[in-house]
From TrEMBL:
GO terms for molecular function: monooxygenase activity. InterPro entries: bMERB_dom, F-actin_Monoox_Mical. It holds the Pfam family bMERB_dom. This is MICA1 monooxygenase. Residues 13-154 form the BMERB domain. Residues 23-57 form a coiled coil. It is found in: Membrane.
Length: 154
């Protein structure tokens, strides 16, 4: 087993583990965001009830509650933006994994000597190459989307 194949296999495993760890971190953060959403909803509901029920309360108190409500809305919007970014990251991870798998398949076909390749092998190699280009294009679209989003936020 040549050393370059061992190195390649090791690097593939390492990149898979990195993607797995990133996916776990994203999943944890999405769960945290969901919990925070619920808490913000509860706080917002309480503030709305206070604003509706306490018509005779001091104007300063109503202003304070309104400001708190606006702060909660702003916080929720920020979380929604973060959640959207994380969902894009999830899609990117999936495409990255798909690209690695296709790379591996393509490499196995390309390592085969041309004289030993059957017409089916050549057809499969072309199909994998086509799929690989599609995945790369999808990843490029996601990156462009993230960049446009970043620029619009500035």
């Amino acid at each position: 087993y040549p050393s370059w194949k061992r190195t390649l296999a090791r690097r593939t495993r390492e990149s898979q583990m990195k993607r797995f760890c990133r996916a776990q971190a994203i999943q944890r953060r999405l769960e945290e965001i969901e919990v925070t959403f619920r808490e913000l909803e509860q706080q917002g509901t309480k503030l709305e009830k206070l604003l509706r029920d306490e018509n005779e309360s001091v104007a300063d108190q109503q202003t304070q509650w309104t400001n708190q409500l606006l702060y909660l809305v702003q916080k929720k919007n920020n979380l929604m933006t973060e959640e959207s970014d994380l969902m894009i990251a999830v899609q990117e991870l999936k495409l990255e994994e798909q690209q690695c798998q296709l790379d591996e398949k393509l490499r196995s076909y390309m390592n085969k000597e041309d004289a030993l390749k059957t017409p089916e092998d050549e057809k499969a190699e072309q199909e994998i190459l086509k799929q690989l280009v599609e995945v790369v294009n999808k990843r490029n679209i996601l990156i462009q989307l993230q960049e446009e989003k970043r620029l619009s936020e500035l």
